Amino acid sequence: MTADRSEREAFDLVVDRVGTTLEQTGAAFPYVADPETGEWQVTDDGNWCGGHWIGLLWLAYDHTGDERFAEAAREHTDVLADAMVREAMFCGMNFHYAGFRAADVTDDREHRDLGLEGADASVAFYHQRARQIPLGTLLIEGPSSEFRGPDSDEGPSGDVLGAVDAIYTSLPVLWRAYRETDDPVYRDTAVSHADRHLDWYIREDGRTWHHAEFDPDTGELVRQYNELAYSDDTCWARGQGWCIAGLARAYRETEAPRYLEALERTVDYYRSNVPDDLVPYWDFEHPDAPDVPRDTSAAVLTAYGLTGLPDDGETADLAAFGERILESLITGYLTPRGDSYDRPDGMLLEGCFNGPSGYADRNELIWSDYYLAYALSRRLAA
Ligand code: GLY
């Protein structure tokens, strides 16, 4: 189904928001924004999600033709390409957005090459024995600026640790590289990585685990546990969203029934544990609900993944569910024009970055803006 009027208006709002964000953040990268004022907390290099901002800049350029968006996108891409650690699960995603997605607008060879560099880095970092792309080295900007490198004292090193979000951060860049080159290494890495997620990260009842630690010599599973969930017996909402988006992508690319079965199971869990407006608490089963923050980033990832599926045949029901989530986000969580508060239009509110620590737990989040904008633009183009 194509976009309706409220989706067109919402798309204009999120493009306007790219403009107000650029005015405030300039050469820095927006990260999380204050819900009352819209003021962004920034990073110098994009941290784990700089590609989302660059993708938004290209989308705004494509929609408006305003050169300041293209200039900013090019400048930010230079910074990201220098700073991004290649041995990290986020490299593929960031270079997909700053590279391949940019090439869709510019047709520039250098952008396509950056996308391929992200795919090559993902293949090179793929752990042959554990059969997945590990979390890798990175310093996540947050309450404790958590370091996940070889000398990590924050738990297991990122080299022996996988994460549920890696299914989505890795698959799109690999499949796009396969389509660009016909080199089966990209497709085979994507399939193997997705299959590992079926058996290590998705539970029988449709919940997901946040992390799986493995033995680097044998590749065997050491333990599964949750870090950003309330407990090991509950479920991190955004992790579920990343997983749903990843499974939807795996099914779209392969039409393999095992991905559809896992997708239906994870979506059934989402449906059964979400409040009526389809936006989950930051943990689906937080014992203090309803007195805990929601997480619109979990909802928008789910909507983005599901609305990318065909809206007929076997996936019609899933795609329709994604549309309902999108509608709820637009009507209930996006700041409208003429808001009585003194804040920008087009902010997607109530994102929860880190529930356990309470850091940025009722904020606008740059990656959520990206998935909302792209979900809407895809529907406008249909
Ligand atoms: N760092 C990925 C996430 O928090 O979703």
Structure description:
By secondary structure, this protein is mainly alpha-helical. The protein has one domain (5-144, 153-381): Glycosyltransferase, CATH 1.50.10. Helices cover 52% and strands 7% of the residues. It is built from twelve helices and eight strands. The chain has a three-stranded antiparallel beta sheet. The protein has a three-stranded antiparallel beta sheet with strand order 5-6-7, with no helix packed on it. A two-stranded antiparallel ribbon has the order 3-4. A hairpin with a 5-residue loop joins strand 3 (139-140) and strand 4. Helix 2 (50-64) runs antiparallel to helix 3 (67-83), helix 6 (166-181) packs antiparallel against helix 7 (184-200) and helix 10 runs parallel beside helix 12 (366-381). The longest helix has 21 residues, at 5-25. The radius of gyration is 19 Å and the shape is globular. Bound molecules: glycine. Glycine binds next to loops.
Structural class: mainly alpha
What do we call the CATH topology?
Answer: Glycosyltransferase
What number is the mean pLDDT? 96
Chain oligomer state: single chain
Would you identify the regions where 5 or more consecutive residues have pLDDT less than 50? none
N- and C-termini, Cα separation: 8 Å
Count of DSSP H/I helices: 12
Q: Mind telling me the CATH class?
A: Mainly Alpha
The total count of strands amounts to 8
CATH architecture: Alpha/alpha barrel
Rg over C-alpha atoms, rounded to the nearest angstrom = 19 Å
Number of domains: 1
Q: Let me know the largest β-sheet.
A: 3 strands, antiparallel
Helix content: 40-55%
Main β-sheet, spatial strand arrangement: 2-1-8
